Model the fold of this input.
Amino acid sequence: MLESTIDPFWAEDFPWILLGLWLFYSFLAIVFRGVRNLNYYIYESIPSTFVTLGLLGTFGGVAYGLYKFDTSPDLIKESIQLLLDGLKTAMYTTIAGVSLSVIFGKIIQIQLKGKRVKMPESPELLELRELNKSFGEFQESMLHNQRNALKDGLETVLQQFNEIMDDFVTQLVEKNFEELSGAVKQLTDWQIEHRADVAALLVYYRELTSNHTVLVENTEEWIKMMDQVAGQSSKLQNVIDEFNEAFSEKGNLSQILRDVRTSTGELQVVTGEFGKLAVSLNETTTGMQVTGDKIDSWTDSVKQVSDASGQMVANVSSLRTIDHERLAKLFASIDELFLKYMEDLDRRIENVVTDAE
Done:
């Protein structure tokens, strides 16, 4: 029974089959699966397994040669031949196992240099991995819920803020524009009401100035005429004086001459007073002309203020229609800005979650 168990196949061929199978598996594991995807213990045991299989062939061959060895003179030659065959198998398998161990050991050292080797998985590692995965899912879910809640809260706050600001600005603008429109309207009504009076006063002053100018011109002509009369009176005085020297001083002619002299003196006084009156009229005319110019300037200013008030009313009316559009654009831009901020916040949170994983 022992002879049928220990057969030449198991002692000579079986170690080579084991070395061939392990060589094929090791080649596939190193080339196709790689360092990162293979169990570290298996990867590390490849060279030592070749040595073990070589030693198995060694002991198997020696055991096979010794088991068939017979010291009797008739069978000594056959026993020596079987022993040598067993020793050959032992030596060859040992050389092959050690050689393959050295070769694959160098290959493994080259592949392990500068690379991360996958550590063997253990129940604790699997549990920690599942726990980390669950925690990551919980963290992502919590961040997602918080992000959505924050986004909804900000949208609600922004919407309420926009409504409050819209109502506040609308009421403020309408109230201020109503007061401004009322004040401008009162100013315009006052200007319209008194424009005719101012224009009539201007016309009256212009007529008065024109009439006064005519009066001054006539007065100057009167002065000239009075100067001529005064000159004739002086000549008459000279003639009377010469005539008075020729006649008696007690006669009627002398009395007449005295009366004429008195009248001539009074006429000269009146002529002087009339000259002063003419000078006063000239000054009055100049003052009235200045007043007329001031009235013209004031009238022009009033017209300019009236035109400016009308333009202001038009601008206020146009501003009422423009403000709502500008406010709508402003609120839209604020909403767009907050939405961009929320999108950027989402991206940052996702990046943090990715880095944490």
